[in-house]
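Ligand: magnesium ion. Inputs:
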Amino acid sequence: MREGLHKIVSSDETIAAISTPLGRSGIGVVRMSGREAAAITSRLFKSNAPNSVLEHRKAQVGAWMSVTGEEIDEVVVTLFRGPESYTGEDVVEISGHGNPFILSRIVESIRIAGARIAAPGEFTLRSVAHGKMDLIQAEAVREFIDAQTEQQARTALRQMEGTVSKRIRPHKDKLVDVIARLEAGIDFAEDDVDVPDNAAVVKAITLISAGLASLKDTFGYGRILAEGLRLAILGKPNVGKSSLFNRLVSADRAIVTEVPGTTRDVLTETVNMDGVPLRFADTAGVRETEDRIESIGVTRTGGARWLAGA
Ligand SMILES: Nc1nc2c(ncn2[C@@H]2O[C@H](COP(=O)(O)OP(=O)(O)O)[C@@H](O)[C@H]2O)c(=O)[nH]1
Ligand SMILES: [Mg+2]
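Predicted complex:
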C-alpha cells in the first residue's frame, strides 16, 4: 500500500497551505513541505540575526518577503528536516500574524517561488506515504481535530499514537504469513517444497478471523464515541416530548403548551453525556393533521426517524 501511495504522491512537488483557521488571531501558521521548502525559505525569509542559516528545529525571527522583495509580515520560521518532520519531508512552518489576507500573501509568495497549493489533507497523505503514520493514525488526526468532548479527544489521541494500529498489526502479520505460504505452494507446486496442507491453512484463517471478530466488536463503541449518538424523541402529540427534550438538553429550547401540535419543526440540540456527544431531536409527533404547517412537521418527523437510525 505504501508503494501505491508513493505513486500518488509526487515528492517532486513542494506544497504549501495555511494550517490555521481563516480568522483573525494572534498568530497564523503557513506550512510548507517538500524538496524545495528550505530553498524557498532561504530565498524569501530574511532573518533578523545576521548570517544565520536555517537549522533543523531551530526557530528564527525575521521578515517574510514577497518575490519582488517587499516585506509581507514579521514571522517566526522553523525548519524540520526530513525524515524528522510531520510529512517525512523537509517541512517549514511559518508563524505569521493571524490575518487571513497576510497569510494568503505568504502562501502566494511561496507559490510564485515554485511550490503549489496543498490539497486538503495532503500533508497527512504525505505523512502516510512516507511511513510516518498509517491510515488508521491518519484517520485519528481528523477525529482528534473534530473532537468535541474530552473523551473523544483522548480516544483519538491514543489512536493517533498507534494504539489501534498495534492491535491490528499481529492479525495482519499472520494473514501475510498465510498468503506467503499459499503463494509458495503455488509457485513451487511442481518442486519438492513443503506445501501447507489445507487443514492447517483453514485453521490459521479461522484463528485470525476470530481475533478480527473480537476487534470488530469494539468498533461499534468506538464509532459511537467518535461520531456521537443521534436520538429522536417520537410519539403522539401532547405526550410531553418537548418537555422531555428540554429537560434532556437542560434548556428551554422547545415551546411547551397544552395545545397539541405545538412543535412543528424538528429541533436538535447536542449535549455532552459522559464524553459522548448526544444529538437529541424533538419532533412534531406522529398523527394525521389538517394543519398545513403541522403536517410538514409530521413529515419531517418521518425524516427524524431516519436521523435516529431507527
Ligand atoms: N401531568 C404531566 N404533564 C406533562 C408532563 N410532561 C409534559 N406535560 C404537559 O403536557 C403538555 C404537552 O407537553 P409537550 O412537551 O408540549 O408535549 P409534546 O406535544 O409531546 O411535545 C404540556 O402542557 C406539558 O406541561 C408530565 O410528565 N406530566
Ligand atoms: Mg412538542
